[in-house]
Amino acid sequence: MQLHSLPGRVIRKLDPVFRLFLKMAGRRCTVCASVIEEPTPGTVLCPLCAQELKARRGGFCGMCARIYALEYDSTHLCLDCRNIPFSWQGMSFFSSYQGLLKSVILRYKFSAELGLGSALGTMLAEAAVFQPYEHLDMIIPVPLHPARLRQRGFNQSLELARVMGRKIGLEVQPHALFKTRNTPPQTSMKRKLRLKSLRRAFAANNSLVNGRKVLLIDDIMTTGSTMEECTRELFRAGASEVRIVFLARTV
Ligand SMILES: [Zn+2]
Ligand SMILES: [Zn+2]
Questions:
Q1: How far is CA 192 from the centre of its chain?
Q2: Of all residues in the chain, what percent carry a pLDDT higher than 70?
Q3: How far, in Å, is the centroid of ligand 1 from the Cα of 119?
Q4: Which architecture does CATH list for 61-249?
């Protein structure tokens, strides 16, 4: 007889340690649902998924995370960032928007599965610690326009920020930033044009932001214009420091 097919009344009579073992024996990967052999506490991914979902440590622009074909280190800024630098004072991210990470983010957007949110929020927390963050006051997620929020039912950046906040011990402030205009999704528009199209599309609440040091969060970065417009708005509202963290950079 398979261990996990024992009837409940038998399992309840077992020693608690053995019961815990049974529970662990049946633990499944959050992403692919395969059984995780010998999981350690806190493990939610099977070794194969964990192998594919690894944080990127080099080969990207240190300001906008543009992925380089060559392994330059992150002090090497891309041409766009040297011409028109972004306003944030620090950036970190998990990896490029492709492969398994892309499919997990898409699945999460359309299903809002708690397990996936927890796995992605944990990756966001992992990305956060690649830059100094302990001195920051709060996490602020990039907001959705109310019309978009009604359509989708949840703001994925806010949910991920909540998981991340618990992991790194920072408070999440969901009302500091709001979207005032419903703008079309990011396209491959040039940085300058995209920035123009987003001008004043966000507003920040001065009373929550003034004098505070902020970690701004989003799931995907395409041109960086959304994060830039939010950063500028936070500075206008008196923020003294803005750093950004996101999950995936489009390639
Ligand atoms: Zn897996
Ligand atoms: Zn760049």
A1: 25
A2: 88
A3: 11
A4: 3-Layer(aba) Sandwich (3.40)
